[in-house]
Amino acid sequence: MYKKISSILVAILILGSLSCLTGCGEEEEAYSSPSFNNGSSDEATVSDAEDEIASISDALMIASYTDATVTDASEMDAILSSIPASLTDALPMGVYDKDVYYNGLAEFKITVDGENWRFFNAEEVASATGTTKDYINNLWYGYKSPYDEETTYAAIATHVDTGSTIIVSYVNPENYNMPDYSAKEYLQMAAGKYENLKVRTVTFLGNKYECLDIPAEQTNVGRRTQFAIKEDGIIIIITFTMSEETPLEEAVSLLTPLYY
After folding, report:
1. 211 within 8 A of 193, measured Cβ to Cβ
2. Rg of the chain over all Cα atoms, to the nearest angstrom
C-alpha cells in the first residue's frame, strides 16, 4: 500500500519533495515551492488590516483547549511525570516515547494507537524527504539543529489503511535572510496557488495559529489543512492531508496541548 507522495508537501509549505502513503492510487500533483529566494517579503505581505478570528470547521474545535489552567498540584505532577526526561534535551525537534511524539517548541503532543495510526521511523522519514537516516537521527537526537537548516521534519504520522498523513515540519526563515517573516506571510505564499483561499487566524491547541484550509476539489490528494505558528524564530507547520475515508476530525483529535 506504500505509494510515493511527490511534492504535495511542498504545496503544504514544506520546501522539498516528500513521498507519502495513499490508498487511492492517483498520481500526486506537482507544485513549485513557495520560495523566499524568488521574491521579497513585499510579495507576501498581510493584506488584511486586522486578523480574522475564525473556526475553519467543527473539526478544528476538537483541538481547541479551553481549560489551560491546572490548579491541582497532583494534576501538574501527573503531567510532568508523563513527559519523558529527555524532552528538554531533545528540543527543539521534539522526542518520541513509544506511540507519543512530544513537541516542546510549540507545546503539543501527538498520540497514535500504533495500529490504525503510526509514526514513520527515521529511515521512513529519510526516504520520504530525500535525506538519510543518519541525518534524521542527528536532528531528532539533537546532534544537528534546525536553526542550521532551511527545512526540517520532526514527525510524520500516517493512517495505515487510507494513507492520510499528519506532518510536523519546520521552516527557518533566518536561512533565507528573512528572519522577520511570519507564519501568516508564509501560508499566504501557498494560498496564492489556489482559488479564493484565505489564511485565517484560529484557536488551535490552546494557541493562536494561522490556518490554510484547502478543499479536496482543489487538489487530487484529498483535503489539506495546514496550521502554522512561529516560535523562537522557527515556523512550525502542522499539515493534515486527508483522504475521503479519513475525517479531519479523527486526525485532529490525535493532537493535544502540552503543558509543563
Report:
1. no
2. 17
Q: What is the pLDDT of residue 74?
A: 57
Write the secondary structure of the chain as one string of H (helix), E (strand) and C (coil): CECCCCCHHHHCCCCCCCCCECCCCCCCCCCCCCCCCCCCHHHHCCCCCCCCECCCCHHHHHHCCCCCCCCCHHHHHHHHHHCCCHHHHHCCCCEEECCEEEECCCCEEEECCCCCEEECCHHHHHHHHCCCHHHHHHHHCCCCCHHHCCEEEEEEEEECCCCCEEEEEEECHHHHCCCCCCHHHHHHHHHCCCCCCCCEEEEECCEEEEEEEECHHHCCCCEEEEEEEEECCEEEEEEEEECCCCCHHHHHCCEEECCC
197-207 residue pLDDT tens = 999 999 999 99
Neighbours of 220 (CB within 10 A): 12
CA dist., res. 16 & res. 151, Å (int): 8
Contact yes or no for 20/160 (Cβ under 8 A): no
Contact indicator for 120, 128 with CB cutoff of 8 Å: yes
d(CA 242, CA 110) in angstroms, rounded, equals 16
**Using 50, 70 and 90 to split pLDDT, how confident is the model at 135?**
very high
Task: Please give the torsion angle defined by the CA atoms of residues 197, 232, 14 and 126, in that order, rounded to the nearest 10 degrees.
Answer: -150
Q: What is the average pLDDT value for the chain, to the nearest integer?
A: 75
Average pLDDT for 1-15 = 36
Span 18-30, pLDDT tens digits: 333 333 334 444 3
C-alpha 168/C-alpha 1 separation (Å) is: 22
